[in-house]
Design a protein that fits this description.
Blueprint lengths: L1 H4 L1 H20 L13 H12 L9 H4 L2 H16 L1 H11 L6 H10 L8 H30 L4 H16 L18 H16 L1 H10 L8 H25 L11 H13 L16 H13 L12 H16 L5 E2 L2 E2 L2 H28 L4 H12 L14 H27 L17
Keywords: Cell membrane, Ion transport, Membrane, Transmembrane, Transmembrane helix, Transport
Subcellular location: Cell membrane
Membrane topology: Multi-pass membrane protein
Length: 442
Amino acid sequence: MLALRDPIRLIPLLFLGLILTGTAALSLPIATADGSRAPLLSAFFTATSAVAVTGLIVVDTPTFWSPFGQATIMILFQIGGFGIMTAATLFGLMAGRGFGLRDRLATQVERSRLDTGDARSVLKLVFAITVAVEALVALILALRFSAAYNMNAGEAVWHGVFHSISAFNNAGFSSFSDSVMGFQSDAAILVPIMLAVIMTALGFPVMQDVRRHRFKWSQWSLHTKITVAGTIGLLTLGFATILAMEWNNPDTLGPMGAGAKILNAAFHSVMPRTAGFNSLDVGSFNDETIMTNYFLMFVGGGSAGTAGGIKITTFLVLFAIVLSEVLGRRDAGLFQRRFGRAIERQALSVTVLAATLIFAATTYIASVSALPLDDILFECISAFSTVGLSTGITADLPPSALAVLCVLMFVGRVGTITVATALALGGRERPYRYPEENPIVG
């Protein structure tokens, strides 16, 4: 019963419960296109990927799953991205149940914010933005599918809604077998998806700050400044690298005109940071582009949104610490603000735990598979960071390796939230301190 009262323990249990429920639903004969029962591992892997808003798949979504199965997947990544406790609390409010301290704590843990005073406003903001953006993007995509690709109204609406929800929740699932590769030159399809991904990758605290203070930089919180500046920097890095390294690659940007090259480079600068849509064949990227993708995926997006990775703030806090050491400064900080020691230790802990988990998973999968190490590493980072991009090896992995990827996706979705929150809430001062002695470092 203790776990049910402790939000830090409750969140992972609820996500696990949703995964098991999704697995059961996808195991039904009605969930597959041919009416047979899906293999248990395929159903479990797909449910985990959907709830963790990752997008890695072992079977082709539009051909293997029936409309019921696809709708189930869509519901799973909508709830997984929106947040189980956020959804449960919202429904409780609608039913007139009220909004107690326990609800505030649980909602704030899931949204990675510890100030319970504004939990209600965060909840309202999350719901309003989710409904508005998903509806707008779905409308734009449906109209485009109908007008330019000869789809009937029902088909266009279905594809529009599916991709809108998937993009907003950074899930990366597509109702097309080749993701969005069939729309490489269509800005009316790629740009709305890209903007929806960027928006939620910033995180809801940033959206709330912008809503309160508009675009007045001086009034933004340090968190918002770091997230926005970091996002711009990472998008620029990804865009420049992909455009330069893939410009003449005959399997990616090479055959395209200049405009299409710029569009697809911009699209793929966004996707490695949190969403798994691809308009280019990732398996055909040059090694330099793959290396950049490692970095972009590992860092991820903003905190308290639907993005994965260690998060922009974590990376830039560590960068500031290193910079302060190099320059011989007493304090580490950014934008004329210094960081507290607790935040520095949290950033270091999250990064080391993430790197260790990815290293262990990569080592294990390499030991049970003959696939190239660079592809395995790409897959593991993508799974942990809930990105969903793949070089095409997912379906070729043995069952034990797929189970490891499921663990990575689950921990990547809920682990960093709970670990960071537990570190922030669990700090206790010992009544004593050991004598200081410094080992040799470096």
